[in-house]
Each structure stands twice: as C-alpha cells, then as structure tokens.
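Dear colleagues,

As part of the handover before I leave the project, I'm documenting each prediction I ran so the next person doesn't have to rerun anything. This entry is a single chain, and its sequence is reproduced below.
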Amino acid sequence: MSKKLFQRTFSEEPLTKVVVENHMAPLIVAASDDNKVSLEGMLYLDEPEENFDYFDFVTAEYSDGVLKLILDEVDNMGNRETRSSQIKLSIPEGVCFELETDNYPMNMIGLNNNLKINSENAPVSISNCKGDIHIESENGPVRLHQCQGNLFAQMENGPLSAESITGESIHLHSENGPIKLRLANYTKVDVETENGQIYYETQPVENGDFTFKTENGIVHLVLPVNFDFELKANTESGRVKSHLDIPLTLDDETYTMINGNGGTKIQITTENGAIKLSNDGHLNIDFAKEKIEQLKEAIKNANTTEEKEKVLELMNKVVDYLNRVVGSFTEEKVKEKMNNAIIKLKLMGDKLDLDEAREKVMVNLEDIGTQISDGLKEGIKGFKTGFDEVKQRHFHADHVHEYIRKVMDSSLIKPYLGGELKNKEKEEVADRSRLKILDMLEAGKITSEEAERLLKAIGKE
C-alpha cells in the first residue's frame, strides 16, 4: 500500500457556485483562507501504477460562474485503502455549494454558504455552518450541530439528528427514519414522517407555526417552561400523554391545550402513533435578555407613531413573558425582586414619551434590564439548588452522572433491572419509578435529558 498526496487550486472568477460529484474518497469541506477553491487529497493506493496521475480522475469544468468538479473512482483503491483515504475541499464564503455522492462520508465544518447535498447511503455531518441547507438522502444518517439557516431535508430510511440549530423555517420529511431535533429555534416548523419517530425540542420562539405529522411513529414534543402556545392534537388509534402542568381537553376527537396567549400554533397529527408532551425543565435567560435588547433597539430607533406603538407592544410582550417566568420561582425574595422590576417596566410603558426623554428612558431601561437579569440568575440558581438538595438528601450524590448511577443502583430500580420480580411487580416498580422521575422533571429538579436517560433505563420512556 502506498500513500500519495495531491493538491490543486482553482481561481476562476466570477464564482457563484461550486458543484462536486464525489466518487473517490471521504470528503471534508471547509472554508477557504484565500478566497479560492482548493482540493487536497491523501489517497492510499494498492500497488499504484507507474506514472500514476491523480488528476486523470479529477475533471474540472467552469461556465457562467459555476465550477464543477467530478472526482472519479480510483480503480486500485481497496476497501481498507478507501476508508483511510481522505479529500479536503476548501471553498470561499458566500458561494453556493452543491455536493452529490453515493457512499462516501461527507463532513462540512465552519462554512458560511448555502448548501445542497444529495446522498444515497453516505453519512452526512454538518457543524458550525451558516446558510440555508437542503439535504436529500436515501439511507445515510444525517447529523447537524450548531447550524444557522433554514433547513430542508428529504429522507427515506436514514436517521436525522440535530442540536443547537436556528433559522426561520425547517421542513423535514422522512419515510422510515427517526428524526431527533434538540435545542431547535425555528418559527416555521413542518416535520412529517410515515413510520419514523419524531422528537422535537424547541427553544422559546414568538408566534411560531409548528406542524408534526406521522402515521405510525411517536411524536415527542418538548417545550420550554412558560412557553406561549396553543396546541391541537389528533390521533386515530394512538394516545396523548402529557407531562405538562396545563389542562388538556378533548372535543370532537381533537385534543387542545393552551398556555399564555397561545402565540405559537402547534398541530400534531398521527394515525397509530402516540403523542408525548413534556417540558425541558429550563428557564431560558437568553430569551429574556434578547427581548430586553430588542426593546432597547426599538426605543433607540422609534421616530414615527407606528414605531412607538411597536415599542409599547414589545414592552407588553416582555412584561407578559416575565410574569409567567416569575410564576415558576419558589423563593419569595427572587419573586419580589422580579416583580419590582416588572412594575417599573410597566410604569415606564404607561409614561413613555420618547420625544422628550429618550436618553432617560434608555438609562432607566438599562437599570431595569440589569435587575431582571440578576433576578433570573438567582431564580435559576434556585432551580439548581433544589436539584442539588434532592440529590444529597436521597442519594448523597454531587454530580449528575453520579446521581444517575445512584438511581440505577437503588433498591427501587435494581430488582426491575435484574429481572428478579414477576412481570406485574416489575410494572408496578417501574411505574412508581417513572412517577418519581416525572415529578422531579416537572419541579425543575432534573433536566429533560436526565429524565429521558432515567426513563430509558427503566423502560418507561
């Protein structure tokens, strides 16, 4: 086996799009340092031919701002050599990028480009990228991490998972593959699958429009604490299970749940699949901070009557959100501090006169924002302190992983895991364990991820 390196740079201008067909080796795509397209390869060959030229297998075509690269299969690379080989492509920021492959893995890192990816069986990984993403995959798994931009994905059998993703809209369709999205921040959400499961954990958004649809899979929706939404759910043969402390009503085969003003509309439809509703156990400080910053910017730029009305509307939204957050706190001192800040914010809105005292308004808002931020931090500490006290009181554990291990070794769960009880007794033990876990989740003493791990361990997810 012989290792061979190659490198080539393309300087075509103007450049609006780069298109790649990869049939050669696993591919990494990264941002270019010099605003040029460069191709670097490290191929392991089995008995390379004399006078072997890699670029006999690389075709470059340029026309009307589009550079197309075709990376052909190298005949004398065996399976082991193929797995060890690697190609790196660097592309300039802002150009559209299209990639097509059959079986070779692709990894896109740190790009600021709109992406279109077509994969048959290859794994796709996209991380720390900005720009709209369009993915079509038959059987290969797709993984996204910390991406910003609209997302469209058409899947057949492969799984799709993502975390810490944000944008305006997300549209996912899958036939059989599971879909799992964590820490997603999208206003327009459309997720549909035939037989796969859907897990969607949203961050706080305003006036969202969410649609989830499946035939036989489970839909598990995880919402933030104090999320403002109106949910309607329909299922033919499945059931709806809610862990939220919000009334769920049934009328003419439609389940309805409303929290706050019902700003975000959520529609869930299944045929045979179950619907699960839960919250993530977190109070989102960043969301409240973001709203205060938006309010500052709106006040700074408000000149017309219409813009001043928008300032008041935004201020009312901030007050409404903060009131709902305060309702989650248990410590009276924290509640009092937050309520005082909210009262000041409301009084500011009642006496708002931007023409005469804009600078004074900004100073007061800065002071109120600091009080709110400090109050939220103390409230979050209260959540964590309560969790720590439970861990110490019941299991004498200081860290989450140790806490989970203690739970797993406890007398309540161990007999169930060891198969020492009869089926009925096992179910009773597991149900009691499940209720304890869910109580702690709803009280904010453990996070949804920790609860999920515990529920999986006792088979009661």
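Residues 327 and 372 are 14 Å apart (CA to CA). The longest strand covers residues 2-10.

All the best with the project,
I.
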